[in-house]
Records
---
Amino acid sequence: MRDLLAALTELRERLQEIPQADERRLSDLKTEILGRKAGALTQILAALPRLEPAARKQVGGAANALKRDYETAFAARERELKHAGDAGGAGAGVDLTMPGRARWVGGLHLVTQVVDEICEIFHELGFTRAVGPEIETERYNFYALNFPKDHPALDAQDSFYVGGDLLLRTHTSPVQIRTLESYPPPIRVVIPGKAYRRDPFDASHAPVFEQIEGLAVDDGISFVDFKATLATFARKFFAPDTRVRFRPSFFPFTEPSAEMDVQCRICQGAGCPTCKQTGWMEILGSGMVHPAVLENCGVDSEKYTGFAWGMGPERIAMTRHGIPDIRLLFESDVRFLAQFARGPR
């Protein structure tokens, strides 16, 4: 009993250490004195059952009182240390009247928004979305589309080959072939997806880019249907008063072929650096489906006709918003992308 009372007296004297202890020392003291397994007070309380009843009452009362004193002292010192840390730490000098910073919550990328909007416009015109593999054979990517076997696009410096006659598709046109082989006319599909070409990564080109193509094949489709459909798209996407024009062009898979321009949205046709002083900006290539393409897919070209087009959503987005460099769409700069932030539908 005397030993226990002496130990309690020594522990009471050590209460004076607490007000001067730093955080680490305070934690060590707490473990040393109140620890559940080896704490000094814990050992004294564990020894109480071995004492006589009278001694047990005297030592137990003193030990419990000292335990309460220690718990109170530890709690007070912990509050002091926390308050000192708040006053002199990272929060010191903060002006609580300043407005908080806006939090970036994420959203659909601008190109994704444009892809969805284009597909929705063509859906309203009766087109269904179709997709296909990104690794294709030369037949689907070139030959069935009426490319000659000596066309430069088949060279390794223009296309990404993965082995044999397999390559990363250079356009989404192979999905047109797969659709024509799988379904009989009438066919109306819009085809979004990634395409890959060995292009330099500069202000107007990227080696990996989004592309949207479309195909309509039916009995009696004419060039008038073709022009009316694409002009309607342009006026729905840009503005009801958008002016469009078609210029003769050449593509192996269409005949006749045309490139479609819209009046520059920046200068309104007056001429500016963005449109190279022409007042017009090209947005897509298009034309009537070449009869050879239909025949390659087992479709009677004497009975059916159709039209097809292809456009780059990145360039469409640049045209609409006056973006001067396509690389801005790939850099993941939140300060730039936040201008166009829109949540998922």
---
Amino acid sequence: MNKLTVDVAVIGTGTAGLSAYRAAHAQGKRTVMIESGPYGTTCARVGCMPSKLLIAAADAAHAARAAAGFGVHAGDIRIDGREVMARVRSERDRFVGFVLDSVDGIPDADKLRGHARFTGPQTLQVDEHTAVEATGIVIATGSRPFVPPELRGVGPGVIVSDDVFDWEDLPESVAVIGTGVIGLELGQALARLGVRTAIYARGGSVAHISDPEILDVAARALGEELDLRFQHKVVKARQDGDRVMLTTRDGGGEERTERYQYVLVAAGRTPNVDAIGIGATGLELDAKGIPLFDRQTMQCGSSHIFIAGDANNEMPLLPEAADHGKIAGDNAGRYPGVHPGLRRTPLAIAFTEPQIATLGAGYQELCAGGLHKFAVGKVSFDNQGRSRVMLQNRGMLRVYGEYGSRRFLGRRWRGRAPSTWRTCWRGPARPA
């Protein structure tokens, strides 16, 4: 068994892990990265970049179909699924290549291959070959798609979003389970590319919207184009040859069984903290087994352990993961001299058409405590000039302002926001 003593050990080499490594290394600290899977970030391999490639192809097909509304007639639209997916895979591999190039620039002595698990508060074991002792440790192990029990072990027809980007051709039919950002983006893209698509939701939520007016507008706008099935529970599924027989139950208790080539599970993600021996750290955990941490420092309790990116389940977004990693790596290198890092105003966008965006504090968060302490302003895009010019006049913008201070606290919009709304908004986006 090799033994290694370092200043900082970073578990994981995704966006958060790489950012943490660089921040600690910049201080001159002896830092090691530990990785058990392939190098390359979630965003580049199976996340934001390949999904945007699929969405871009879908938008091109949709624009060609919608051109007649401007008096431009494009003729028959033919979608070549193999060509679509070939471009997705090719460009995806190019993006991953950029990440791999950056990893290649890191000294080999700073990279350990294997699965890391805690054997004590300051010690890790990597597979069976290396024991690591570190003054500071960053958990940046990412997350994985969650699959409900009803859909586990069914067969090759039940897939997660990671699998989509290795397709060589577009399928004939897909059932999407989940109306979060991933489910809506992929579901709409597939539908626009000619795939028979149905999107199922256990409740009535769309892209985690908590503002009831925006939710209503979003559900109606998406429902005009997509086969959205709210209040549907998955009962069971079984593989039947090259198809999946999916049985669901609606809100009235009626069951229905349909055949799909694939059932795409987009029901959220699970932080990868359950197989790293987290119990050996002595950290206080929440109900999901995730260490309690300070979102300004990424520090777990008062310990020398920090947690960053999707692993902490705070906000699984690329910019947030980069910020988490920088703060965690910097503090791990400085420990015990921990200090708050800079956090950006929360911003999340679902790249559906029209888009769904959330900026600042959320409606549900602002309503906590019972009494409204904020004013609401709103505008509809239905008759807004530029939106009508672009034939995208659907949606609504709602902004929240704090009584007394007159500060903007947040905003939500569903639709193509006019450029003036996109550029003139300034000021704090969090309550005092």
---
Amino acid sequence: MEKKTEKKSKGGFILRIVLSVLVAIAIWLYVDIGEATTVRTVVRNIPVEFSGENSILADRNLMLLSGYDTTIDLWLEGPRTTLWKLDKSKIRIVANTASITETGRQSLAYDVIYPDNVSRNNIKVDKASVYTITVTVGELSTKEIPIYCDVTGNVADGFFAETVVLDPATLTLRGQRNNLLNVAYAKVVLSSDEAQRTVVKGLEYQLYDYNDNVIVDENIRTDITMVQATLPVKTVKNVPLKLHFEEAPGSTMDTMKYTIVPQEVTLYGEKDILNDIDSILLDTIYLQDLTQYQSFDYDLSAPEGTTIMNDVETATATLVVNGVGERTITVSEFNFTNIPEGFTPKALTGGLNIVVRGLIRSVDAVEPTDLVVTANLENLLTAGDYTVPVEVELNGGTNVGVKGKYQIIINLSETPEPEPEPAPEPDEGSAENP
């Protein structure tokens, strides 16, 4: 019994020691990673940026001849948590050239700029590889040269490459006069292998002298690092010319024939644009308005983003109507709907001439009684004379239709009150004798 008690006591003692050690480690870790613990880190080869070089310094006709490729190593000190979240690749060193007013060797101070999520008050530069930046300043000369583009390869079969467009088209160089004298032009190279669409690429340029030899000179500077080259690549597509026809009773497609010359045109443009174009609509034709023979000329307009090839500017449509005739029929009977309460309408138009159109035999068979003319009076509220539109319906016959729109003149008057009927006279035979 005593041995068991002794073992239990020793086990509890060991457990307390282990717990104490773990607590101590946790406290040490908390203190070590907290804001109270200061650590150091090194950031190497940070490139120096020069503010005002292309503005203030250039306005003074000065430029940096050396020192612009300087890099600096920084030894930073600060809380561990701050340095842990510091993105070293976003640390910048900026030297201001505004103090430079003459040529020769100059010393510039610099500022260290940290990412936005880090306060510079929490970090200290403990040591730097250099504390001032030495630069050499010379007189600035400028020279504008053209940029050319060599296009390599061939576009896909059935496609055509147009002239390359460069942005910018010229390059302004800065440097000492002797360095710029021999520079003739800049060149970029664009590949167009099997292209079926316009090629747009940002390209690095190379400088050349007057003998077409490559020039590599770090003392020649420019604001532009890339040139955008655009190579338009287009193709062709034949599309038909079309007319849209609106039919009506007695005026249907089986009664007419038409031709369009030319039947189609060749469009030139981007593949993606041409894919959405199936035809060119010239006009909408209402068959009811056609005479027996008509010819229409149309000025052709290419869809947006395309051009019509072969100098085709106009098209002619010829329409011939067969077996169709027109006839004018006079109608003098009119119907009214939606007559205002308390009013009576009366047609002042004695006869309405209505044109019917259709197959000749069917047109000849139409009688005035086959035409039902109805005036809708729903918008009339007071007495007076009005001109109102009418609907004309043709009873019977699918090969004939009414052509045009019509109206009549009516008079709307108040309906008179009916006179009261006289009282019946008494029957003498039924009267009582006094």
